[in-house]
Each structure stands twice: as structure tokens, then as C-alpha cells.
């Protein structure tokens, strides 16, 4: 029997329109911002690993800050997004920004203390490393720029997004919005294997650029669930309201623990390959407190707290998605200028005045068990002769999916209602 695949699909979309503000002066072409300069392409990944080690904690800080912003306006709702996809897309956009807009982007992304080149070198290493073939899991990180056919982006901008972010630029006729929409949706549909077929509903004929960053992730549990043990059970949306959902079950050895300080249970469930799911189950009436304390230091403490022990795990089988208008969320994080006519994006195309008019993020998470009988006995665990604890995720919980090799947070979410969308 095959193990339960986890499929995570998302796309971060940025729509830039030509504005009517004053003409911006063309850049000098040396990729210099103040005293900070981005070296021209031609180097190998060299210091990329060191740069990524410096970058990842800042990506994590941004991830948890954004989660808290989403949670503050999503009480009782499911949450699911990829902070890495959002950071990657905005970091790529920063290659076209200058002056106060660049400073604001870096501060909002928590990159203010990092050299510009280190940020891009770190992302280049992450994209290259995460995209390596692995027979046990599929992880595809990609970036693409859809460019109005009549617009001429600066060559060094196209060169830099290709070098640092492996992004391709695709000519698009935005004067025919329906054809442009179909072209972009078709591209996204292909890259996400049909899971996000109609991301874009309408496009404006004044659109000039669509910038997209996506991640496709599919992995199998390291320790398999048996679908024959899945059965309907109660999931408590609140203390006095419950629904019936299919609950998967498995007994085994897991890294597990209880945080007395925050009153929550922590369970680590590894995948085959280099990925891990961290599940956090707050006690009743304690979800908001745990959400408020969710930060990289808290997660680091949890990982030191959990130990390997024999437990029985009961986890709901579900599919949820999240679609977010990032503009109001990023405003709260200090990223504003890029959305205005005063945003300095002249390093994208000097002859056009550009502003960011849309920032939409969509993510999908599916947990289920599929397969046939026959492979369930492929691994054997030595179990201690004691009665195992039962860890039952039958009320709202949090989930963090990380890449073990780079320690990057791929996905972050809250399951408030497994039957919700």
C-alpha cells in the first residue's frame, strides 16, 4: 500500500500596470544602490550556501510575522500559504526597485541588515538546491515574468532575474486581456499539474507585467498510514461545536513533546526525502496565544523539547486552500511605496512608470491516503512495551512544513476546519 501523499501547490502573482506619474530617470546600468552593488553574473554558486544560511532566519522571521498578520484577521478560518514563495517573488521584484522603495521592501521582508548581493545569492542557492531531483519527493520552485510585447524591459533586469532567480521572461499581448489571461493561466496550470487552472479571472488592458513565483511540492510520509484504519470522528471547531471528519490513524515512534509554557502539544512527522511536518496542537482556548507566540525562537525551542517516543497519532484527512490579497497585509508590514505611483521601479523599464497594483497569493494543501494493499509492511519499527500516548488532532492546529537541508519554511498554516475550503 502506498503512503499518503501530501500535495502543496501555490502561485504568488504580482500585476504591475503602467502608471501616469512623471517620467523616472534611467538607471546608470551598474546595478548600484548607494554603496551597495550587485555583482554582475558570471560567478558560480560559490558563497551561495553561506549566503543562504544568513538569509533563512530572516525568511523565517518574515514568515511568522506574516502569519500573525493573517491570523489577526482570519479568526476561525483555515490559513495556508508559502512564505518562501512570497519572499522569493518580492526579492526578485526588488531587483527592479531603487532608493526608498528598495529600502522599504528590504525592511518589510526583514532583509534590512543583509547586504543586497547576499540576499540574491542566498535565494539563488535555495532555488538551485530545492530544485534538485529527489526520487522520494517532488519540489519544483520556479519564477516567470510575463512582459507586454511592446514594452522593453532593461536588459540587465532580465539578465539578473534569470541569473539570480532562474526566471524566464515570456512576451505577452496584454492589449488582448482574454488571450493574456489564457496564456498565463495555461502556464500556471501546466506548472502546477492542473491543480490551479484558473488563477486569473480578469486582466486590465493597461497591464504591463505579471510576475509569478510558484512551488510545487509532493511527498510521501516516511511512516505510512493505513487507509483501513481511517474512520469518521468528531473534530471540534469550538468547545461546543463539532463536525464529523475522516481521521487517519497510526501508531509508531515519533518525535513528540508538550510545551508547558505555551500549553500545546508538538509532533514532528517526517516525509521521505528532506522534508518534515511540524504539527502544533494548542490546548482548548489557547490557540490565539500560541499564534501570537509563533516565531523562529519558539520553533527552535520546540525542536529541542521534543523527543522520540511511542505514540498513537490521529490526524484528519482534508484539503484546504488559501487565497490572499497581500496588499493590505504587506501595508501592515511597512511595504507601501511599491503599490503607489511614487514607487521607484525604474530599474525594470526606464521608459515606463510602473506600480504594483495587485499581489495575490494562492496555496493548496491536501492530506489523504491513496494506494493499494501490499506495501504497508515494507518497514518495521521496534516498539517499547509500554502503553503509547494518543495524540489526537481533533481541534484547530497549526502546521509548518520545512525543507530539512536548508531549514527553509516551505509552508505555514492553520487547520481550523478540515471540512472547509
Automatic annotation (TrEMBL):
Location of the region described as Disordered in the Swiss-Prot/TrEMBL record: 27-46
Molecular function via GO: serine-type endopeptidase inhibitor activity
Species: Ornithorhynchus anatinus
Taxonomic placement: Eukaryota, Metazoa, Chordata, Craniata, Vertebrata
InterPro entries: Serpin_CS (IPR023795), Serpin_dom (IPR023796), Serpin_fam (IPR000215), Serpin_sf (IPR036186), Serpin_sf_1 (IPR042178), Serpin_sf_2 (IPR042185)
Signal found in the keyword field: yes
SUPFAM superfamilies on file: Serpins (SSF56574)
Domain Serpin span(s) in chain numbering: 64-418
GO CC, one annotated term: extracellular space
Cited PROSITE patterns: SERPIN
Protein name in UniProt: Serpin family A member 12
Annotated keywords: Signal
SMART domains hit by this protein: SERPIN
Keyword Signal among UniProt keywords: yes
